[in-house]
Amino acid sequence: MLGATAKEIRRVDRGADIVTGGIADSRHGIRFTAFINGMYRAGPRPAFDTLAVNAYAARASGVPALVRRARRLMDRSGHRRGRLWVTEFGWASSGPRSRFQVSRDEQARRLSWTLRTLYRSRARLKLRGAIYYNWRDGSPYPPLFQDFFGLHTGLLDVNQRPKPAYHAFRRIAPGLR
Q1: Which of 1, 3, 6, 146 has its CA 20 to 30 A from that of 109?
Q2: What is the DSSP string of 37-77?
Q3: 87 Cβ neighbours under 8 A, 6+ residues apart
Q4: Residue 97's CB: how many other CB atoms inside 10 A?
Q5: Cα-to-chain-centroid distance, residue 10
Q6: For residues 82 and 78, what is the distance between their CA atoms, to the nearest angstrom?
Q7: Per-residue pLDDT tens for 69-108?
């Protein structure tokens, strides 16, 4: 599907930058390495320009480690010029217990460390950028009203009050241009 879509996009706009959907290192479904290797084996050349990674990790060091792993997979597949984009990363500061749940202060520390580390590595990794998930905490929603860690990763709480991570982001982001 990606190959067919890419062909049509390039037919209309030769300069288009084709970005994959975010690929996570999930414990469910196809494993990260197998999925990315399969994407490269599917065609004679990559059907995308930028590989998007949803880099959730139990520890802050796991985020850049996953990005480095993705870079190695790309390079080994001959896509050395391909770029990476961290399209999601974050930690919950409340909500149901999860390996991604930390205190509010730890959420801020991990956000700061991760942004700085990725920024320092951006040229070597060919990293386009990193997107913190999420702006604001959410509430469980229909139809099942199930709660999960992602609803509690915000820089603001559900009442739109800034958390320590918000202040950390405001301090760091302007210097990462």
Answers
A1: 146
A2: HHHHHTSSS-S-SEEEEE---SSTTHHHHHHHHHHHHHHHT
A3: 19, 22, 52, 53, 54, 131
A4: 8
A5: 25
A6: 9
A7: 999 999 999 999 999 999 999 999 999 999 999 999 999 9
Q: Please state whether the peptide bond connecting residue 143 to the residue before it is cis, i.e. omega within 30 degrees of 0.
A: yes
- pTM here? 0.93
d(CA 9, CA 13): 6
Q: State residue 8 phi and psi, 5-degree precision.
A: -70, -40
Residue with tokens 């880099």: 55
Q: Given strand 83-89, what is the order of strands in its sheet?
A: 23-24, 50-54, 83-89, 127-132
Class of domain 2-176: alpha beta
More confident residue, 11 or 27: 11
Q: What does DSSP assign to residue 9?
A: H
